[in-house]
Amino acid sequence: MTTKKATATAFVFVFLAVIPAGDLLLFLSLQSQRAVRPSRSPARRVHNSRRAPGNPLTLEEKGSPAMPADTPQTYANHARFDPVFHYFLAPVLIITFIATVMHAVRFPSAWSVWLAVVAFTLVVLTAKTRMYSLKVQDRVIRLEERLRCAALLPTPILAQTTKITERQWVALRFASDAELPALIERTLTENLTPKQIKQAIQTWRPDTFRV
Q1: Residues in a beta bridge with 204
Q2: Which residues of 104-131 are buried (b: 16+ CB within 10 A; e: fewer)?
Q3: pTM of this prediction?
Q4: Using CA atoms, how far apart are residues 43 and 163, in angstroms rounded to an integer?
Q5: How far is CA 31 from the centre of its chain?
Q6: Which tens digit of pLDDT belongs to each residue from 11-51?
Q7: Domain locations in the chain?
Q8: Nearest C-alpha neighbor of 74 from the set 198, 211, 209, 210
Q9: Which of 105, 122, 134, 178 sits at 20 to 30 Å (Cα–Cα) from 95?
């Protein structure tokens, strides 16, 4: 009976180990983002439909998704959490890893140690998947900001934007079109940190998509 239980447990953990956890995590994250993504208000749709043909959308209107009127995004509340990842996946995997380590310490055997190794592997896999998705988001943000700068910055300053780091680009995305040129000049001359860039922004340009 003990052998059957051990075999069943082994099957479960091996099955979990070979599940495409990256695809599952990405799917759950997308579903969570879709659930919290704000929809465009009817007033804004009417406003855009009445726009004159010769008056195209500005960069501000193209780049910034609508924010809920009662909760404007600011420096104080711009950090976002994905409930599926931060409140379910991460805690469950960490607790499982701790439990398997305690079990291996109390009942040392090759099998209990292997379970702890598998649990640790799942934690690392989930963390790496999260890091990869953030890296992709940051690369997209950098591309978007470079395109925005190409339309807003004079050529001499635009040529120097190659010195801006990826983390600085991620912070600069919150700056409005009006203050972006001056803020980029400050970033280049003073080498501002991402935190300093965000704190220097006067007119916040919300971003509700990066998690």
Answers
A1: 175
A2: beeeeeeebeebbbbbeebeebbeebbe
A3: 0.59
A4: 41
A5: 14
A6: 444 444 434 444 444 444 545 544 444 444 433 433 343 34
A7: 2-49+58-200
A8: 198
A9: 134
